[in-house]
Amino acid sequence: MKKIAFVIPWYAEKIPGGAEMETREVTKHLHQAGMEVEILTTCVREFVSDWNENYYPEGIEIIQEIPVRRFKVRKRNTKVFDEINLKLMNHIQPTEQEEKIFIQEMINSPDLYQYIAENQENYTAFVYIPYMFGTTYYGIKACPQKAVMIPCFHDEAYLYMKIYRELYCQVAGMIFNAKPELELTEKVYDTSKIQKIVMGIGMDINLESYPEEFRKKFKIQEKFILYAGRKDLGKNVHVLLKYFEQFKKRNPSDLKLVLIGGGEIEIPVGVKQDIIDLGFVEIQDKYNAYGAAELLCQPSKNESFSLVIMESWLCKRPVLVHEACKVTKNFARESSGGLYFNNYFEFEGCVNYFLKNQEIANQMGLNGRDYVRKHFDWNVIIEKYRQFFETLDQKQTI
Predict the structure, then answer these.
(1) What does the longest C-alpha to C-alpha distance in the chain come to?
(2) What is the pLDDT of residues 85-140, one digit of tens each?
(3) Strand 275-279's sheet: what is its strand order?
């Protein structure tokens, strides 16, 4: 089998974000398993930086023993792109001409696409993550017969763009992070000729949690709900804060809500004394926080996986998720490791159920741990990747 290239818009060792983390971890473990992998990316620093700026020098850099090939981006019309993107963010489908402009003025690197076209014989597959960026769209156009997507699809306006639907049905393979993502894809795209697998993301199943160390270090002795992740509207954290405020009014106690992660969000005045925002913490402190919590609440409606849910389960604590997120709801139901809510009163009922039924809550945490160990141990995931690429390679040689 030849090399496997992972294509992503930006890449560095410490960029936060689901797609970036997934690429780092998958390539690292594939490399450790003896597979030859590379990363193809641009010179742009990260998602929140200027997509016109070539921050990194072009050429090859070695990160975690893996070659990273960087290519310069071309200048883009940010104003025109932002106008069309605003329509999409407001769930207004653009015209076909606007779709073309949208993808043309996205982050793009003609040098990258030329490299893929000219060097395709040296690779078994080019794996693109995530779906909506120019590096994915034009990279696939350069060599669709060897294109594999880890799309990270969500039910959002971008998914239904005609320009994506026409091209993405031509790829050789798709790798999904969860079953509901596959089900959503099959409703929108013709995947009948595509090699597909629900893979998920590998986890370090041997992580340890020391709850008392967390309580001692951060001086938190009361029971608490934990939220771990970015504190922004896209993660629905404002709903969690609102519901927690209502919960405290209706259920007086010393229960706290602990927030871990980046970003800023306004804390309701009525519960400022009961919400503890720790910001970024060290990784072991995060694991210790999971173990010390009564439960993890993941209120996001838009997840293609959820590392924090898996980590909470590995630390033997149950989870509470939003019913509107099909992926996290499916995980909670399949594992018997958590509950889900769709409004305040369901949230209140679930929280009280966890608090008043400690043995059941503990068992849910153990159920979740068993689920993660069975499905997302890196040894399991890497073997699935190996078989997937070997099948793809065999098809190409026929």
Answers:
(1) 68
(2) 999 989 899 999 999 999 999 999 999 999 999 999 999 999 999 999 999 999 99
(3) 275-279, 256-260, 224-228, 295-298, 319-322, 338-341
Q: Exposure pattern of 362-394 as b/e (b: 16+ CB <10 Å)?
A: eebbebbbebbeebbbbebbbebbeebbeebee
Instruction: Please state, in angstroms and rounded to a whole number, the distance separating the CA atoms of residues 59 and 11.
Output: 13
Do residues 315 and 290 make contact, with C-beta atoms less than 8 angstroms apart? yes
Helix (H) or strand (E) holding 276: strand 275-279
Q: Is the pLDDT of residue 398 over 70?
A: no
| Bond into 211 cis (ω within 30) | no
Q: Which tokens is 54 given?
A: 């070539």
* Distance from the Cα of residue 258 to its chain's centroid: 22
202, 286, 303, 21 alpha-carbon torsion, rounded to 10°? -50
Judged by DSSP in three states, 331 sits in helix
Confidence of residue 13 (pLDDT cuts 50, 70, 90): confident
Is the Cβ–Cβ distance between 318 and 350 less than 8 Å? no
- pLDDT, tens only, 268-286: 888 999 999 999 999 999 9
Kindly state the tokens that stand for 169: 């049905």
